Amino acid sequence: MSEQILQAVQAPLNTNIPHLRPGDVVSVHVKIKEGNRERIQEFKGTVLFTKNGSGASFTVRRVASNGIGVERTFLTSSPRIDKVVVERHSKVRRARLFYLRGRTGKRARLKQKFS
Hints:
Low-confidence stretches: none
Shape: globular
Distance between the termini: 59 Å
CATH architecture of the domain at 12-90: Roll
Radius of gyration: 17 Å
Largest sheet: 5 strands, antiparallel
Helix content: under 10%
Mean pLDDT: 90
Order of helices and strands: EEEEE
Strand content: 35-45%
Number of helices: 0
């Protein structure tokens, strides 16, 4: 009997996602299914961190209207993501911006990076 080698099946990468870095302010357009119809919902916020590899993903944080922080993790290979628009790049000195969770208002702002 011949040997069978199990290989990990990878989903194709979504071509509508640009290269993202921590600190980028992005607008993620997600397809939402409600009943029998589908619509696109925008989730706008700051990229906290990215994860590479087979389960590549990125986490976006925004502050809701009532002052509560909302974080959402998106898979890079997900067909549910319609597009991702990078609105601005920020100057950061670390790869994971977890310190933004404890900050509000002016203290939570990041300096914009031009170029």
